[in-house]
Amino acid sequence: MKVWVDPGRCRGHALCLTHAPEAFEFIDLEDRSIVIDGAVGQVALDVFQTAAKNCPERAIIIEE
Ligand code: SF4
């Protein structure tokens, strides 16, 4: 499974951090989110799916 945040779509709402703080973090000074190193494989797929569903920009991409 691959999961990433599309930097062209992310607008920094931080809803992904609200839904999955164990999976996403903010890049300092850039006001956008990335997947935490090592989270894929440790965090359950449904956590990523919930974050993706709640991202208003559809910026979280999941490839199963
Ligand atoms: S909710 Fe979506 S647009 Fe907002 S910070 Fe997270 S990935 Fe980016």
TrEMBL record:
Signal peptide: none annotated. InterPro entries: Fe-S_cluster_ET. It holds the Pfam family Fer4_15. GO terms for molecular function: iron-sulfur cluster binding; metal ion binding. Keywords: Electron transport, Iron, Iron-sulfur, Metal-binding, Transport. PANTHER family: FERREDOXIN. This is Unannotated protein. The lineage of its organism: unclassified sequences, metagenomes, ecological metagenomes.
